[in-house]
Structures are given as structure tokens and as C-alpha cells.
Amino acid sequence: MVNVPDIGGAEGVEVIEILVQVGDTIEKESPLINLESEKATMEVPAPFAGVVKALHVKVGDKVAEGSAIVEMDAAMAKTTEESAATAAETQEITESAEPLPEKPVEQTSAEAPKQPTAEPTASVSQEPIYASPVVRRMARERSIDLHQVTGSGRKGRITKEDLYQQPAASSAMAMPAAAAIDFSKFGEITQQPLSRINKLSAKNMHRNWVSAPHVTQFDEADITEMEAFRQANKKQAEQQGFKFTPLVFIMKAVVHALKTYPRFNSSLDGSGEMLIMKNYYHLGIAVDTPNGLVVPVIRDVDKKGLFILAEELAAVSKKARDGKLTARDMQGQCFTISSLGGIDGTAFTPIINLPDVAILGVSKSQIKPLYNGKEFEPRLMLPLSLSYDHRVIDGAVGARFASFLVQCLSDVRRLLL
Ligand code: CAO
Fold first, then answer.
1. Is the model's pTM score more than 0.70?
2. Tell me: the pLDDT tens digits for 334-351?
3. Ligand 1 atom at minimal distance to the Cα of residue 248
4. Which of 68, 85, 353, 365 could pair covalently with 382 via S-S, beta carbons 3.0-4.6 A apart?
5. What is the number of the ligand 1 atom nearest to the C-alpha of 359?
């Protein structure tokens, strides 16, 4: 009989997982069950090799030291005498204990279990899974099949980070599937397939929306002077064959703000524990095309003048609308601008273009009365909507970044500072 070993005097500890079945041939130290107390998840390994004859617990049972777990026949095992010593080696991993146990927890069951267990990973494959109890529990909570996960740890061990890369399948927090509706019951319909770009962008938008906690900061820049400057130079640009729109000023202001607030010019690495800081300034520009939204990248915006940017913007948006962008044209942005200023609207909440940590939405400028301390003056106001990833950017910094952009656009001479 295998009993619960010394678990530090804890009582009423819940059995959260049973990793073996009657008939399984078990090697010494293979995990038998997982227990979970309020403070820790513990794995109870087999104290000797043998064949499982009977299970004395089920998921949800409460146990303490000495409770019977499984009956094992050690007759076929090579050794039996080390049971007491092995029981003492019960591995305890607290929730916060980051370094995973050195030794992989290997599932060695030779046969697929015959009854379903709490964890889907136990029932489908004979491949050993290398994962700690904490990782197994996380996988169970997120309904992730560990057999489908490639471990990045030593000897292919599955780490918490590997799980973070997996979509949760059907946990309580997962998205409920939308019900299939027969709309023809309510009236006449036709079907329209989504374009390749629509499908790609739907997937990316969904991922970006659910994986980055968004906050959107709204602000308004007084661009009266900037607009006068733009109007004064518009003709010259047109003679050279391109439009001179507010967007290029906004691009320069964004780069100035990225230099002043470098955290906005970063990306979270895969582990979610490191920021990659960038010393280049490439901007993604959302372009509306007949086939859907694309985001080409304009590189080294810090090194280019307004006219050069305007010319590049015209060229790249034509290329986008002609459906001729290459993968390289759409890679490497640090920050993205989505301008709906040529259309209408007062504000919107743009979705961050991961791996960026922020995006700026621009709406149509309007003349508004602004109080100058003595009277109301008509001023041209440009609405800005800055969405940022709250995992990386604090609210105060988000507000400062937006305010800095407002100052730059309200007095474009600041861009020279
Ligand atoms: N306020 C007032 N007018 C504006 C403006 C603003 N914020 N921004 C642009 N305009 C004006 C331009 O000056 C231009 O007018 P003129 O021809 O008289 O100068 C007109 O609106 C049209 O501009 P544009 O849209 O052709 O050019 P742009 O440089 O502003 O934008 C581009 C280029 C490619 C970004 C834009 O065409 C586009 O595709 N925008 C849509 C992006 C999108 O779909 N975003 C949503 C993504 S979902 O988050």
C-alpha cells in the first residue's frame, strides 16, 4: 500500500489529479497523484516500482499524512526496500516557487489509462510529459492538452511560459463559442466570403485584443498653427506629386514622444518578464484598402523630413491599395498610427498592433471655441486616442505621452528641440 507521506502536517488536502490507472506498470518515483493545499501543489511519487492493483482515492477526496492512495504489487519490481526514503522526497512546489524542480516529473505509464482522469493529457498518449505539478494544474485549468505543447525547458520540460503561449481551450475564462444561427429564418440573406486579409486581420485583432489589457487615453491638440504651415506648403508638395496631410506631422511628433518616453518604443519578450527596448523608429501606418486593413511600415522616421515622409506615405499606401505589399513591407514597426482623420468621427479606441505596446488613433480635426483666459477663440483641434498595453505602460505615463504629443503638435517647433 502507498500512503500519503509527510506533508508537513497538512490535513484535508485535496486530491486534484490521479495520474495512474489500475493495471499500470509504474516505475519508482513516477508521479501517482497530485495534491493541492491552500498553499502548495504536491506530487506524490511511487516509492517503489510495481503494478497498480487498486486506487483508494478519487479526485476531490481530502487526505492527510498516512491516507491510503494506491495498492501496488511490487512483485515485478526490482526493488521494494526504498519506499520510506522515497516518500520523504515528495516534491513540493509552492505557487510562487519559480524555479521548477530540477528533476523532470515523468509520466511513465506504459498503457493509456482506461478511465478518463481529471487531466486530458493522461488519457491519449504514451509519450512521457515533462512538467511540474504547477504546470500540470495550470494546463488543466486552461484546458490545455500538454501533449500538444512543445516544452522549451531542459530535456523538453514544459514551463509556465510555454503555457502562456497556448490559447486556453475551454476554461471558465475562455470565450464561449457563438451559437450558429440560421439567419434565413428571419429574412433573405446572401453569403460573402471574407478576403484573405480580412481573415488574417480578424485573427490578429482578436489575439491583440484579448492578450493586451488596453487602456485608451483621449486628448486634443490645437493644430491651428501647424495647419497654417501645412497649407502654406501643400502646393509645393502637390507639385512634386504627393499630398501633404497632417499625418506626417503626427508621425514626427510620435517619434519625438517615443524618444522622450522610451518605454513606448519597446515590446514584451515571450516570457512576459523582459522588455525589448528599441533604438530605431519605424512606424506602422494603418491603411484602408478594398481588400481590408493592412499596416505597412515606414522605417527610420526619425531620420526623414516631412516631405520625404509624405512621399513615402503616398507610395506605400498606393502599394497597399494595389495589393502589392510584401511581408517585409509590413514588418518591424515599433508603434502604429491609425488615422481616420480623412473620414470623420471624434474619437475611437484603436487596438494595439502587437508586439507594439501602444497605438495612436487620429480623428478629424474640427474648429472649436477655446478659452484663452479672456475670451473664446476659434482653434483647430485634433482629437487623439492613445491605446496602450497596461502591462507595460502605467496610466500616468500614458497620460504624459499623450500630453507630450499634444504639446509637439500645438507648436511644431518643438520637434526641432
Ligand atoms: N483631420 C482633418 N483632415 C484630415 C485629417 C485629420 N486628422 N487627416 C487627413 N485629413 C485630410 C487630408 O488632409 C486630406 O485632405 P486634402 O486632400 O484636402 O489635404 C483628406 O483628409 C484625406 O486624407 P488621406 O486619408 O488621403 O491621407 P492621410 O495622409 O491622412 O492618410 C492613410 C493616409 C493611408 C492613412 C489613409 O488614407 C487611410 O487609409 N486611413 C484609414 C486607416 C484605417 O482604416 N484605420 C482604421 C484601422 S482600425 O483600427
1. no
2. 999 999 999 999 999 999
3. 29
4. 365
5. 49
